[in-house]
Amino acid sequence: MDSELIYERLKALGKRNDQEQYRDISRAFQEVIRYNRAALEELEKQLEEEIRDISDRYYLYGTVVPAGDVAIINDFLFPMCEEPAGKGVRTVFCETGTADMEELFSGEQKLVIETRDGSVEAAAVFRPCARYGRQVEKLRRIFYDNGLYWRTPYLPYIKRFADVECGVFSEAEDIKSVDLLGRPGILKMNCLPVWNVERMKKKCLVFPIPAIDEQYYRHNLELTFPQDGYAVDMDASIREVYFQNDELVLITEDKKQRDFDLYRIAVKRKVNAPHYPLTTNARRMRHVDRQAENAVRRLYTLAEIGRIAGSYEPEGGFTLSGVEEEGKRLKLTFRVTKEDFLTRDRLEFLVSEIGQYFPQFETVGEIQA
Amino acid sequence: MRKLWQAVMEARKEAEEKDIFLDVTDTSSPYGEATLKNVYSPQDQTEGRIAVNPFYSHQAVFGDLIKPGRIPELTAFLCDLILHHIAWIDSLEGMNLEEFYIRFLTRDIGQGAFGVLAGMDDFEDKEIRRIAYYYLRLCRTGCYENCFCSILQELFQGVWVSSMDDGSLLVVIGMERSEQGERKIRSLRHIFLQAGRKCRIYWNETPCIIGCGETPVGKSVLY
Which ipTM value was assigned to this complex? Predict the structure, then answer.
């Protein structure tokens, strides 16, 4: 009951004595109402969550941190790849837009390296760093093997890493700053991409017991973080994988204890201000999204485009401003509120995500000036 | 046999909640719970009053509160407060899961969940609720044309939908062409029809069917 109603009634009451009594009793009664409202809200929340989001635990997050910080982060972000760069090669992170990166990879670049002994000029060859991309590709295969829905990842930072081949640069230890493309400060050394995927090995702590089919064996793996998503590196002997009572159950042909390769995809946790903003393919799930995702079959209406773009809206600062349909082509126009060096990647991500929903169209996107 | 929540919901179409007074002092029918007092006498001063028979279904609540004889003003006001809450609870209790879903969808669609492609400014709240209902049906069945036809028939008058050989739709609407109407149709097409589906709209004009004498020869002809 809104206080407006009580106020109206108070005005309408004639006697002053009555007014006071009414005010006191209505105040007590308002608590009852508040309790019932809260109960309704809880029910509504429960009803919302009843309709499942298929990639609830499997959203990917990523950012870039200085190499020294990796160890102290937390149980949420982990380095993408432990494998070191090749000999005579140094991996650097460039804080520039996509166009600049293309220019970097196009030919030989001139570097001005400032060391303790003075500045040196050197020619360098930049090549895209493929190690991190390979990790993403590997995870995608793991997702397919496990029957999980693979959502387009939004990890734009890994495209900013480059392998640099340059005699002086690769070996020098005491580098103060490097000037590239005439702009100092865009080239960062000793940075690592991190994401919320942890590789781990786990084994069943007790003897595997026979599975219900009396042919295979079940291994119960105890999980430290049962709220997170898990994927198993499948091999031929693994028959089935499922969650049960906060444990991961694997039905395999092996009757002995053995290690299993697991991937833990951590759900979002609070992170202490990373140096670069966290990028993610997580969406906000409104009720419309839940219903449309769980529809009997995927809807191919134009309003779906607006809905999908809308579910990614709040974080990216992107708003869908128009859709043009030209035969087999679908042209999406976006309006951008805040622009930074990741804007083009965000656009690519949105277009590929929408394109995944509409395989019958060739989807292209552009930013409205 | 009118229940309290029915009367309140009917009154809510016209008035806000604070303007509705649930009156236990007024004489009401012993055979029903609530009577709208201003239905037959619009000039009456007691506009927005609903006469309630409190003992009809809530004897336990009001049995001790209301004594025979004249009811004091304060008691009447307190009963109004309690009855408002009872009506609210009753109206929620009748909702099933699907209606809750429609409630959520109405909220989301009203807030512009479909973005620029399907603007909702031209629709009234009641119409948005119907759109939500058919959207839910679309999700459940996946039947585009069926839902599109049904929603058109509810929101427009004299709608006539025909499916052509090439899969396109032909829609005739028996209303004058207006900009608002066109915007509405555009939104509905985007929500309920597949992308790339052709759909021709004719306003207030019957297509001539060859071989059928009753249809006049106009701008469009069907075979």
Answer: 0.83
